[in-house]
Amino acid sequence: MLGVAREALVGSEVGAHLPLGREVLTKTTTTGRAEEYGCRVTTNAGEQHWLDLACSCVRMAGEQLVLVVCHDVTTKTQAERTERELERRLRESQQLESIGRLAGGVAHDFNNILLAIMGNASLARSGVGETNPETLAYLDTISLAAQSGSELTRQLLTYAGKAASCPEQTDLSVLAQSVHRVMGVVVAKNCTLVLELGDALPPILADRAQVAQLLMNLMTNAAEATGDPAKPVVLRTGVCAPARTTTWAGDAQTAAVWVFIEVEDHGCGMSEDVRAKMFEPFFSTKRAGRGLGLSTAMGTVKSHGGTVDVETAPGAGTRVRVSFPALAGARSPDVIREPKPVSSGTRETTRVLVVDDESLVLNVTRELLARTGHTVSTASSGEAALAILETSPSAFDVALIDLRMPGIGGLETMRRARRINPGLPIVIVSGNVFDAPSEATLPDGVVLLPKPFTVQQLTDAIRQALGGGRTINS
Fold first, then answer.
1. What's the average pLDDT block by block, 10 residues per block, for the chain (474 residues)?
2. At 283, is the secondary structure helix, strand, or coil?
3. Nearest-angstrom CA–CA distance, 263 and 273
4. Rounded CA gap, 462 and 258, in Å?
5. CB crowding 273-295: b at 16 or more within 10 Å, else e
6. Fewest CB atoms within 10 Å of the CB: 116, 170, 407, 410?
7. What is the rounded CA–CA span in Å between residue 132 and residue 101?
8. How many helices and strands in the chain, by DSSP H and E?
9. Sign of dihedral through CA atoms 193, 198, 199, 201?
């Protein structure tokens, strides 16, 4: 058990082999009561064992002796620790699911309200002359505040791994170069960005926008921790063995080849306590931080089946490596999604059917489109929209349909509308990206538009739908 020969044990000091041995023996002989305690010992072979010790006083041949019974409970202890770890992961998973459901449930109604605020602010702005800059500034502030509210909802959904995604074959080195071009100026006051990128990396299947945001969050934290424009922050990519994680593994996939992207700084580093909490929502060491940057990054890693490895120590800097499973046998194409150009025969005044059960959204969308020169008809339900289309199948150039409606939902309305008017361009509007379908699964001529949206985003979505929607060029 201890890896010590019997001859070496006999006559030796108990405390040399068992932690707290002398104290327990003294207490046992003084009180005469049996004592029990647990301890961890390291054998001569370097193995760690957990022991349960029971000490009691006995008399033998007229002498009072202390009997110590050792029970090796290493297997039991390890099983209990494994069970506690599984329980911890289960609680974390349930917490993520709860946050996802909460954010998803709030997102639809909350984003409808934000859309009404943004839309009416935009309408009010168009009615205020440039001679009233103070009022214009107030209206712009209202719009910015509403957009910030929508971003908060999106971050919560991303943290819970529920954000809508558009996966594409992605070369991490190419993505890192594009992010570097953006971040180079932003972090110039705090560090010098250094690129160490692998060549011809196997592609991964990823939502480029989400992974780019993840990378920007890591680079921003690294730059702020460095705080010296002369010190480097290294952005590195490459191929690695099946991922090993010291921080979080989630539902990591089993892939033969993994591709990593990592950010390394030589800044202040983190204590073990901070490192353990760095991916928790609303935890931040920054005075003005909201604590959602790294937590949303973790949500992105989870949704992509990746892993995270963190190496850090106070004063020794930090290295964060994010690993993703590579696509088996895939090449590294530059997948581009772009709308087809709208044909020259498109009407100058587009006829739009807007379908939404929320009167606030319906009215503000109608006004926004009317102000931009569109001819607009409205329907407050899927059933009403289908009745209008059955009466006049060719009366509209495009339909704007809310995803979540009572009765016939948005997707079913889209399918039935396409049976009435095959090829009708459609914009699916969603206030909850959790419920929204992936853009990759949408047919040609159908575009997804998240709420809340600006006038520009609205008109761009309509133009994109008229142009045939999103296509994949291989």
1. 67 63 69 75 77 79 76 86 81 68 71 86 81 83 77 63 68 88 76 89 86 86 86 91 54 72 90 78 60 68 85 90 80 37 48 93 91 92 95 93 90 94 92 63 83 87 80 32
2. coil
3. 21
4. 39
5. eebeebbebeebeeeeeebbbbb
6. 407
7. 44
8. 12, 17
9. negative
